[in-house]
Prior knowledge:
The chain is α+β, with helices and mostly antiparallel strands. Helices cover 33% and strands 26% of the residues. Strands 15, 16, 17, 18, 19, 20, 21, 22, 23, 24, 25, 26 and 27 form a 13-stranded mixed β-sheet that branches. The longest helix has 18 residues.
Amino acid sequence: MKQNILFTCAGRRNYLINYFKEALNGNGNVIAVDQDLLAPALVDADIAVQVPDIYDASYISKLLEITKTYSVTAIISLNDLELPLLSKNKSIFEKEGVKVIISDENAIDIGFDKLKTFNFIKKLGLNTPKTFTSLDSALKAIRDGELEFPLVLKPRWGSASIGIEFPESFEELELSYKLQKMKIEKTILGEVSKHDIEHSILIQEKLNGNEYGLDVVNDLEGNYFGTFAREKLSMRSGETDKAISVINKNIEKLGEKLARALKHIGSMDCDAFLVNGTLYLLELNPRFGGGYPFSHEAGVNLAAIYIEWLNGEENKNLLKYNNYKSGFIFSKCDRLLKIKAPKSYFDKSFEAITLQTDWLNFLKEVENYDFYHTYHYHLISKSEHETPVLITYKENDILIGIPFLIRNIPNTPYKDATCVYGYSGPISKNIPTGFDNSRFINEIFKYFKENNIISVFSRLNPYIENQHSILNDIGFLTKQGQVVNINIQLDLKKQKTNIQNRLKTYINNTRRNCSVRFAETNEDIQDFINIYYENMDRVGAKKLYYFSEHYFYKLFNTDVFKSEILLAIDNESGETIAGCQFITTNGIVQYHLSGTKNNYLHLNPTKLLIDDMRILATQRGHKYFNLGGGLGGRADDSLFHFKSLFSKDFRDFNLWKLIVNQDVYNELVAKNGITKATDYFPLYRAIDDLNVNL
């Protein structure tokens, strides 16, 4: 059976790539992925792909996309920090027929959390170094004579020997402890340690003896297969540099006891010490370790064994791949690889950004954007099968960026691009008068075609300049209606003269009956959510307007943009009766969501909340206060009429629609049985969607 093996976080593990290529012998491919396009292991792989950082929200969906594109049959991770993530998401891949050769979450947690490693080993009745989780407890143990210098100080959740120190005095211990605690927060270990940063460092006794590396191997069902040991002769950068293969019955017994208790999957890299005839177990890393090449060269071919397991072979038939012998000494050495970096690695004129940091950096460079353009808003808005992407283009000092949600078109190899709920479209900097967008058109069409994107849809932002000149001759722009802006650059007195007299009366009456305050607590947010849902029930809103509670909390609790909820309180009952959410970015205030309790509609509290924000926004020196438009962008419905009572400063609201591949577009429309032409876009998705009350 053909096996296509995907190695994630491939890094520098060229030896594994080549071992598996040799074992496959042309009957399958080795696919390697890494966030760094220049990672050495990508050079030797049959197929190399760049992926986002493992903590990026799109990481799992990107891996899933790769498995489908390259018919991947198995995934092997080579990174400690990634193991918990992939173990948690195994079912997503295995539903697609991809075997994830990673242990269950419990086994991964025991190996990753070094305190749980200590407790697990002790529970098995095996020896392990004394371990302390706080500086005070370690100092007390030293004073009581239970612990002595030198010691080992290391991260509780660690990888690649990052942050390991060997203090030899009280002063060194205290300084190292404080320094490492600060360092952890600044390294890749910060993310995994943040939930218990106060106990993120372990202090252990330092063992003096012979150090061994063990490959403890279970099959894909968690059944014990064998233990392959080597004595470490020297180390470099946390990995075994020189070693001699060893066959030792006591080590094999230890490995078997450990494997049968943990029931991990595949190879597990372990560290052990032999001190005065007693074996101590230190580390359990349930993945291929940096010492595996020593086992492979000494006679056990786990690459071939893995492939046989994937083909359904039983352990008893795999002895031909196990010819492990003792006494073989090997040493690692570096080699220089020529890397053929794609032009895009150096040519940054056109990029598709998926990483949060890169996205944020581009926004800072552009300067003029709305919250609808941020990565954070895309992340909380996207559905499970959508990927946030920021298309960026640079030409001399010209900058253009367009954010999208890229989504698969079900039961096809195609995709389309859409926008978040709200006012999106291009953002830019230094667009000249009469901008020639021909080169931009070529680049963006090239991207769409290379990524099988059939159509593109976006709602434009009436307050972001140059959107029309950027999109000129790219698809078609249609006016959907108008939105209402309150000109808060006028003084408050002048603004008030623009407000309809009857509305002023309503506001004054409401102000006598209600007070206004900001939402501050989770209870306040929950009150607003409940009021919003009640409001949606009353107006018979479509399901798509019932945003999840997660959406509200994430939208409120962020420092990416200023999100505020004003609440109206009934003076007589003290009850919260209405709420409005306003979001401010770069001088643009957006009236985002609102609701009023049914029993208090007669008090018109929403009008008061909008008016209070009008005053606040003016005092803060903002530029625009967008109230949005009517239902579906219409200017003749009651919602638009209500908003227009505040101002007659109307702005055109436009939609951008682009068909990249007309033939496929027509096929999809026909395939979905759509025969009646409508304004809905894309027509092959002619179902309820965000088309659009803004």
